[in-house]
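Entry:
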Amino acid sequence: MQCEFCGGWAEELARTRNHLWFGCHDCQRSWKDDIQADRRVLGVQPLPEEGSQSRQKVSTARGLLIAVAAVFLAFAVRLALRSTIGDASPFIVFTPAVLAAAFYGGAVAGCLATLLSAGLGSHFFLRSAGDLALERWDRVALFLLVGALITTLSVVIRTARRRLAKSLWQEQKARAVAEAASQAKDEFLAFVSHELQTPASVVLGWANMLRVRKLDGPPLWHALEVIERNARLQSKLVEDMLDTSRIVSGTFRFEAKRINLAAIVGAAIEQMRPSMEGRDVRVEVEEVGQEYGVVADPVRLQQVFTNLLSNAAKFTPVGGRISVAVHRTGSRATVTVTDTGVGIAADFLPRVFERFEQDPATIGYSRRGLGLGLSICRHFIEQQRGTIMAASDGPGKGTTFTVTLPLERSRESRIEHSGHALAPDALRSISILLIEDDGDTRTMLTDVLQGYGARVAALASATAGLDTLRTSHYDVALCDLWMPDMDGFAFIRSVRAQADRRLAALPAAAITASGLSDDQDRALKEGFSAHLQKPVDPRELAAAVLALARRGSSDDLVH
């Protein structure tokens, strides 16, 4: 990019969602440009190596031209002054020429100017032989020495100036990066606040309408659907931010197992089908009935395909189509998700998987989301030895996302299928101690567990839970981690320290809204058998309780 002040080479220093910082290598100026939604400003790449070499050659040629011009100009001046000063001090006019050539042209130009000056200056006095010739050659040698000294000093000064310019450039770039980071933080907080407040205001508005108007029939079901949809959206935004934080800090963990890729894709399609059908978007599925054994984390892999389908549905207009295909390509399984949506501009495709990046051309079409989903998908797939790519013929021509994963060669391992439904009375005859200090959450969890047939004793404090355990028997305990008076960590330590071996071995799961991996590790280390993160899916909660109850039963048989 050309500098708007001096015409030199300008480079992008930093960028945020709304601004770009530029700096000029030549004049050391910097400036900031706004990125408008309808005017995409592309990042300016640093000067390529070929460009740097070309600029260096041009600079060298310019220096040599300066040297030749300065020497011949000095020679012309010396000829003009010959009638006045004669042949005395023949090199006095050539010294400034050497200085100018070395300062503006560098070492090569300075050396060339020195040699040319010595040759042309000798024209005025190297004409006689005899004893004076040696003296006059001494003058030439002395001039060569002075020229070398001038050239050396000029090179030292030029090097110091270059180092100073480089330091100023680095300082300028660091200042731009710091300013961009500060502005990015403010923009991010404002953007996140807006994205979280939008579904929250919808939930609060419809909840208030339910309380005031006493809705019934279709309006009631519509209100509940809107509340559930926005609550899930807000939960997904928070989960995306937590996942991104874990990825950046390197604390994200995967639980890989051999699974059927087709079953995972099918589960993601079924999960997203109601929302897509609600938008009148048709889903076409190809070759999802076969088994494709891959080693991956089933939960995270389903999250990837759910995210891709959600992204496709969000940018596909009403009446559009989404195609999903699973097939084998050599030793790898390939999944393609193709939509007939708004497409992706060619200049944005290289950045589509970057964090917080959203195509400015589609922002007006859909403003929901933080721009984190695709970056999380890429991380999940790459961590599972796969690849993910995006392709589009341009705006309005749809998008295709392609995921490839290596197939598992071993056929003896058992493939685990996901998506098994629990029976309505799956927790019948299981007694559960639930400890949760928040009243609304306690009521909700109790209703969910009782809906599966469980007997639930719900308490508001860990202290009351310990007192109850000493007098009553329960098959499973569910406990919140962060509570006043006694937290979940102290509760599980007290349980594991009981003299009664049956009570000390009570299967227990921690339920918390904290997504920190440190809290999860600490909960398991302190003695919890499992960790569940709020908001807990009812089916996952019931499945976890059932698994804990069965584990407790097997332990009782062993004892």
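The CA atoms of residues 259 and 415 lie 5 Å apart.
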